[in-house]
């Protein structure tokens, strides 16, 4: 089975759809291929919370946030820590994205119909130094409609073009080889997989029923390696992060397998920064899983106490919502696969959110009434309460004695009640006056100074052992695989580079397959909202150049 197009896009996730929209505007004949069924159209972005990193927006200004390109660049470069010769293109991409995020990004997306929740989130608050990792201020713009709301304007344009015969969408097509010659890449070959009626995100079969070949320039938009734990472990930077845990949850579907990056490398493309990755430390086992080993991330406010598996309080900057990579490193270098939150119902009600469009039906459904009832009601949002009741990582108890007994039932490292109590009581004593040396309490009070946090994300400070704030809640937090920060090296037009540094004619890469731009525009750390933002930006670049 053979066909021809001006451009073949491998992957029907966000970056591939954005690239397709740009190609349609240029009048190009486009074929998109994907190994999954049509039910998974939209890829990983569908499951996302829909956050976008943007700079100096009306939403920020309405919340009294004074952002600037210079401050955002300081934060980005402090987080990235670019220190390699191969960081030339990633750094150029970082600069280009910052200019985009401070310039036309919001107006362009707004013109496409995208809207944002009025409260700007303050994600990844950093490690303590002005020129180090972290966001100095809130920049996480939550799209109204979450991940599906981000996809919607691009999906509508692609599906309309499909009906008009301008675009062809071919599902159950697994690319296994890029074809070409000394003059560049001229198409793809692969296997046709058997039809499968699984729902979105579920593991589909890999039964081969035929083969295919499509000629044309190629854009690789196939995602990263987060669903392939074998590749994650082989790329894991043991010296920098410690050994990978024996057990990890998967934060992305099974089909996010990273194999297309290997096929591109076999055709001469150059993957770089494969040891840079972004895995979360607040993973909980999904009680109602969609894909294998399915984990959900808790998006915590700043108040829960964080303990390692031995029951020792985590040191700053390993605080909830502050420095993800430092926390991952701390846990892994201790040789643990999990840690603990110890918190209260009062904190959980105000501060626990869950990642994913399916865990936020109010925001995903753009339902203001449901939003007010679920976020400002007597209990935590219903999806959080469901995890409290059904999740195997949650312990709920009226007393600390009962809580620790429950933690010891599900944990591998016995916890000492007296040791845990002494640390909690020490923290609680610091709330007795407006002064404190406890870094988390200082951070908590600063968070309450931001109107958005006070209103939506930060509980009034109180003693953990105050019975009126109860019941007590402990959460076992697992490592959750998620994002590749490295990828195929590209220039600023998303064109792939070979091992010699020369451009490869006919081959482009975007989204996570390109490390969201250039082969790793985050460097070592992400500031959040930059994954979807990078998919949009690099997909647009690829579609305008291919």
From TrEMBL:
Keyword terms of this UniProt record: Flavoprotein, Oxidoreductase
Family annotation (InterPro entries): FAD-dep_OxRdtase_2_FAD-bd (IPR003953), FAD/NAD-bd_sf (IPR036188), KsdD_DH (IPR014614), Succ_DH/fumarate_Rdtase_cat_sf (IPR027477)
Annotated SUPFAM superfamilies: FAD/NAD(P)-binding domain
GO MF assignments: oxidoreductase activity, acting on the CH-CH group of donors
Record-annotated FAD-dependent oxidoreductase 2 FAD-binding domain positions: 6-532
Pfam families, alphabetized: FAD_binding_2
Cofactor: FAD
Superkingdom of the organism of origin: Bacteria
Protein transport as UniProt keyword: no
NCBIfam families associated with the record: PRK12834.1 (NF009472)
Name the record gives this protein: FAD-dependent oxidoreductase 2 FAD-binding domain-containing protein
Species of the source: Rhizobium hainanense
């Amino acid at each position: 089975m053979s066909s021809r197009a001006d451009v073949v896009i491998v992957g029907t996730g966000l970056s591939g759809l954005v690239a397709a929209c740009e190609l349609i505007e240029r009048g190009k004949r486009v074929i998109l291929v994907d190994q999954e069924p049509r039910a998974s159209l939209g890829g990983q972005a569908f499951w996302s919370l829909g956050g976008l990193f943007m700079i100096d927006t009306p939403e920020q200004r309405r919340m009294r946030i004074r952002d600037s390109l210079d401050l955002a660049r300081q934060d980005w470069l402090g987080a990235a820590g670019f220190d390699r010769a191969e960081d030339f293109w990633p750094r150029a991409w970082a600069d280009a994205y910052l200019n985009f995020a401070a310039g036309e990004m919001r107006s362009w997306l707004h013109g496409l119909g995208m809207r944002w929740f009025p409260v700007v989130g303050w994600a990844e608050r950093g490690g303590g130094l002005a020129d180090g990792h972290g966001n100095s201020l809130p920049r996480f713009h939550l799209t109204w409609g979450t991940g599906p709301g981000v996809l919607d304007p691009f999906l509508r344009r692609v599906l309309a073009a499909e009906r008009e015969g301008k675009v062809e969408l071919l599902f159950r097509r697994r690319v296994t080889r890029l074809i070409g010659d000394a003059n560049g890449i001229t198409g793809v070959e692969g296997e046709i997989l058997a039809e499968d009626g699984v729902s979105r995100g579920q593991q589909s079969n890999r039964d081969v029923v035929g083969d295919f070949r499509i000629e044309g320039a190629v854009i690789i938009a196939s995602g990263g390696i987060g669903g392939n734990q074998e590749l994650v472990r082989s790329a894991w930077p043991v010296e920098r992060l410690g050994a990978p845990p024996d057990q990890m949850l998967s934060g992305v579907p099974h089909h996010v397998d990273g194999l297309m990056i290997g096929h591109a490398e076999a055709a001469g493309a150059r993957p770089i920064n494969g040891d840079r990755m972004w895995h979360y430390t607040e993973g909980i086992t999904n009680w109602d899983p969609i894909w294998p080993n399915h984990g959900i991330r808790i998006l915590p406010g700043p108040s829960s106490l964080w303990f390692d598996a031995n029951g020792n309080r985590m040191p700053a900057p390993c605080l909830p919502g502050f420095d993800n990579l430092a926390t991952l490193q701390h846990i892994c270098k201790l040789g643990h696969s999990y840690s603990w939150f110890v918190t209260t119902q009062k904190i959980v009600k105000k501060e626990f959110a869950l990642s994913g469009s399916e865990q936020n039906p109010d925001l995903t459904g753009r339902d203001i009434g449901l939003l007010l009832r679920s976020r400002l009601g007597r209990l935590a949002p219903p999806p959080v309460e469901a995890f409290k009741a059904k999740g195997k990582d949650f312990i709920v108890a009226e007393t600390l004695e009962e809580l620790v007994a429950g933690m010891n039932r599900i944990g591998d490292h016995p916890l000492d009640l007296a040791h845990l109590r002494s640390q909690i009581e020490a923290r609680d004593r610091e709330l007795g006056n407006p002064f404190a040396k406890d870094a988390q309490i200082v951070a908590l009070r600063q968070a309450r100074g931001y109107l958005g946090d006070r209103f939506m994300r930060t509980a009034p400070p109180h003693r953990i052992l105050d019975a009126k704030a109860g019941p007590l809640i402990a959460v076992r937090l697992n490592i959750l695989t998620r994002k590749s920060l490295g990828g195929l090296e590209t220039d600023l037009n998303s064109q792939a580079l070979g091992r010699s540094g020369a451009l490869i004619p006919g081959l482009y890469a975007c989204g996570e397959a390109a490390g969201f731009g250039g082969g790793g525009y985050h460097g070592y750390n992400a500031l959040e909202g930059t994954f979807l933002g990078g998919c949009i930006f690099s997909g647009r670049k690829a579609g305008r150049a291919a």
